[in-house]
Amino acid sequence: MSDEAESQETIRLDKWLWAARFFKTRQLAVEAINGGKVHVDGLRAKPGKPVRIGDRLTVHKGSLAWELTVQGVSRQRRGAPEAALLYEEDEASRRRRQELVRERREQGLGDLPKGRPTKRDRREIERFKRGGET
C-alpha cells in the first residue's frame, strides 16, 4: 500500500476513539461525541465522521482534556501500548493534564468514595450533622 493510500484510509470517529482506548465501549464514545465532548479539527463532530491520519482531535473526559493528532487507524482494539501509537498528544496538553492530576492528588480529591455510604459512614454523617454529639 502506498503512503497516499494509507493517508486516505478512514475510520468512523467512534470506532477510532474505542480502538485508541479513550472509551471502554463504542456506546460510551458515541455518547461523548453527541454530548459535544469530542471535536475534530476544532469543530463538533458526529459519531460517523470519518477520521484520517493527520486530523486534530480534542477529547474531554471528566475534568481531563487531550489534544491529539491522529497518527494511525486501527479497526481493532489492541493493548494500551499499541493503542498509544494511534495518536500523538500535544506537549502542552500533556503538561496541563499531568498538572491537574497532580493538584487533585495533593488536595486528596483523587480518593473520593465510590457508591453508597457504609453504615460507618452514615453514623459519621449523622454525628457531624448533630454537631459532634455522641
Characterise the protein shown here.
With 134 residues, this protein is α+β, with helices and mostly antiparallel strands. The protein has a single domain, classed as RNA-binding S4 domain (Structural Genomics Hypothetical 15.5 Kd Protein In mrcA-pckA Intergenic Region, Chain A, Roll), CATH 3.10.290.10. The protein is built from 6 helices and 7 strands. The strands form 2 sheets. Strands 3-2-5-6-7 form a 5-stranded antiparallel β-sheet. Strands 1-4 form a two-stranded antiparallel ribbon. Helix 2 packs across helix 3. Pfam families: S4. InterPro entries: HSP15, S4_RNA-bd, S4_RNA-bd_sf. Keywords: DNA-binding, RNA-binding, Stress response.
Fraction of residues in H or I helices: 25-40%
| Tally of separate helices | 6
* Spatial arrangement of strands, main beta sheet: 3-2-5-6-7
Give the terminus-to-terminus CA distance. Answer: 75 Å
| DSSP E strands, number | 7
Classification by helices and strands = alpha+beta
Report low-confidence residues grouped into runs of 5 or more. 1-5
In the CATH hierarchy, the third-tier topology is known as Structural Genomics Hypothetical 15.5 Kd Protein In mrcA-pckA Intergenic Region, Chain A
Task: Please tell me what the overall shape is.
Answer: elongated
What is the C-level CATH assignment? Answer: Alpha Beta
- Please state the CA-atom Rg, rounded to the nearest Å: 20 Å
Domain count, please report it.
1
